[in-house]
Amino acid sequence: MSEIVLLETESEFDNIKCISIPFDDSVPEYYAISYRWGVHPEWKAQTPNYTASITSVSQGNLIKLCKLYRSKIRYLWIDVICINQADKFHRKMAIKNMDNIYRRAKRIVAVPDLCYCDQNPHPIRLVKEEILCAVKDIWSRQMELFPYGYRKYLGDDHEDLLSSKGAIFIYQIVQDWASRCWVISERTIGVNGKKMDMIIISANVDIPYLLCESFFGIDWYGIVFGRDLITTIIYCKSTKYIDRLFAIFPHTIYKDLVPKLVDENRTIDNMTDLKKTLLDIVDCHDKLTLLYIVVADGGYQP
């Protein structure tokens, strides 16, 4: 990937600004955005090299994000603008370099509710004050349960919190975001690099996700070897099955297989294809783990 496209935080609703520069040591500091795609009316943004057609995030939310970080950083990297999704060659190059893009970012900003807006709302409709109150309650309960920072997941300890619409909303959007295969890669880089922030854009509030680990029940430092590797690939979520390998393999002993898989135009149509592909390429230890999962799941089920 010889160039990288970056979105300027000075962008406005009627004036999206981007730069395209060599992806080398001279790249300016940028924040990389981690989110899950939504479904929105198509809108377009002009970059120096192509016109991006965007349906996965609303234009209003993108500009809200730019304004939120304008005083902190000049550039953002977000896939729907910064990858030419209509160009297969450009998308292939981006997939090969996705790991580097997030590792090079100064910070990774997780925005679990970026996919929702007034036209495509979350089923739980809340006002900002309800979300802020829920964040405060989650934090207070966490400190009550674990005053010394011991945060083992004890699920039932938070049942009372989950009677609150605000807490349910936060729990659901974080869980939906965290389970996506590309997000697993992004949050692994962010957490292990001590450079990930999490915000709820609809309320403009930070989430202390590490200190609320027991509430979310997510092992932020998890993956990706042995049984954890295979179960992560099998049970994570993705629009395309092949993306699970593109996203997870760079964190494993199989990282060198990613360029080969991309160049082969390998397609995986269903869960059976995914399991068979894994059997072809993983080592003997991981094959045994996969076979155990196949048997436990009742065989090759699509």
Write a short abstract of this structure.
The protein is built from 12 helices and 9 strands.
Walkthrough of the structure:
This protein has about 300 residues and is of the alpha/beta class. The chain folds into two domains: about 1-220, no CATH class; about 225-295, no CATH class. Helices cover about 40% and strands about 10% of the residues. The protein has twelve helices and nine strands. It has helices at about 60-70, 80, 90-105, 130-145, 165-180, 180-190, 215, 225-235, 240-250, 255-265, 270-280, 285-295, and strands at about 5-10, 20, 30-35, 45, 50-55, 75, 105-110, 195-200, 205. Strands 2-1-6-3-7-8-9 form a seven-stranded mixed beta sheet. Strands 4-5 form a two-stranded antiparallel ribbon. Helix 4 (about 130-145) packs across helix 5 and helix 8 crosses helix 12 (about 285-295). The longest helix is centred in the middle third of the chain and has 18 residues, at about 130-145. It is globular. The two termini are about 35 Å apart. The model is unreliable at about 150-155 (pLDDT under 50). Pfam families: HET (PF06985). This is Heterokaryon incompatibility domain-containing protein. It comes from Apophysomyces ossiformis.
